[in-house]
Each structure stands twice: as C-alpha cells, then as structure tokens.
Amino acid sequence: MADGTARGTAGFLLEMGMLKRARRSGWWIVGVKDPETIAEHSFRTGVIGAVLAMMEGADPAKVALLCLFHDTQETRVGDIPHIGRRYLDAASNEKVTADQVSAAHPAVRAGVQQVVEEYENGETLEVVVAHDADKLECLVQAVEYREQGYQNVQGWIDSSLANLRTASARELATAALDMSSVEWQQTYLR
C-alpha cells in the first residue's frame, strides 16, 4: 500500500472515532440530557440487523455491514434530527462518504462507497432489514429512555413502529414494548 493511501485510510479510521463522541441529537428534543452516541447506536443497529437477517432469511453479515456504515457521514454533517432536515439542504450521504474515503486505499474507497450507496438506494431484503434494524434500535432506545423517566419519547416509538417493514421487526418491537430493559437477566437470577 502506498504511503499516501495508508495515511488516507488511517485518517478515515481516525475520523470514525468521532462517532464514539458525537451524540444522537434528536434525543435532546425530547429532553434526554445525555443521549447515546452515534457509535453506540450503530453498534446495536448492527447486532439487531444481524438478528433480524437471521429471522428473515437474509445475509446477516451483509446486513450488519450495511448497519455499521449507515451513519458514518455524521462525522461531517452531524446528526441532523428529522425536524431539522426540513430546513437544510445537506449533501447526500453518498457524497459525504465519497469525500470521507477520497484518500483511502482504492479497495476501501470502492467498498465503503458501495455499502453506503446500497444502504441509501437499494431495495434488496438486506437493505430492507438494515433499515428496519435502524428503526428498531431507535424504538428500543426510546423504550429504555422512557423507563428512565423521559416521557416525551412516545413519538419516536410510534414513528419507528410505523416504519418497520418486516414481520420479524414488528414482532420484536411488540415484544420490546412489553419488557423492561433488565428483564433479560431475570431468568439467570432465579
């Protein structure tokens, strides 16, 4: 690997570290004082995506990859809440991604751009499942915030639930709405 592309690729990896510090800003609108980071959201979205893919007969690795890169552009444009998008004319995620990886190794550049392009424009089962994973993660996070006393999250729950396309995502959402965030451990405490 030529020194220039090694530096460009390393720069992209360092930029992705910003996602560990950047907060999901939409939660501030409903009063959450210390919301999750974009990286925290993306991690659980990837896990949810892989699980949903298994349930739906899609490729779990492909879905997890789509989920992992679905918000990487937010290092450059921030996490713009849906209400804010109404007033902004932001660059497409594909354009931002192209800039992010412009100095990276050619295989990395092509691979990352292809993943983002597919997530943004594809209609395969894997893309549908990845989008459901994003919505389901928001719903689960809203349930957790509601449990912590934030009462204004119902709109997030309703919106996320309404936008789920797969039967498995709707089934998991229904189950999550009826659980506490620590119910999973009750089986092991008996």
TrEMBL record:
<comment type="subunit">
    <text>Homodimer.</text>
</comment>
<dbReference type="Pfam" id="PF13023">
    <property type="entry name" value="HD_3"/>
</dbReference>
<protein>
    <recommendedName>
        <fullName>5'-deoxynucleotidase</fullName>
        <ecNumber>3.1.3.89</ecNumber>
    </recommendedName>
</protein>
<dbReference type="InterPro" id="IPR006674">
    <property type="entry name" value="HD_domain"/>
</dbReference>
<dbReference type="GO" id="GO:0005737">
    <property type="term" value="C:cytoplasm"/>
</dbReference>
<keyword id="KW-0378">Hydrolase</keyword>
<dbReference type="GO" id="GO:0002953">
    <property type="term" value="F:5'-deoxynucleotidase activity"/>
</dbReference>
<dbReference type="GO" id="GO:0046872">
    <property type="term" value="F:metal ion binding"/>
</dbReference>
<feature type="domain" description="HD/PDEase">
    <location>
        <begin position="34"/>
        <end position="148"/>
    </location>
</feature>
<keyword id="KW-0479">Metal-binding</keyword>
<dbReference type="InterPro" id="IPR003607">
    <property type="entry name" value="HD/PDEase_dom"/>
</dbReference>
<dbReference type="InterPro" id="IPR039356">
    <property type="entry name" value="YfbR/HDDC2"/>
</dbReference>
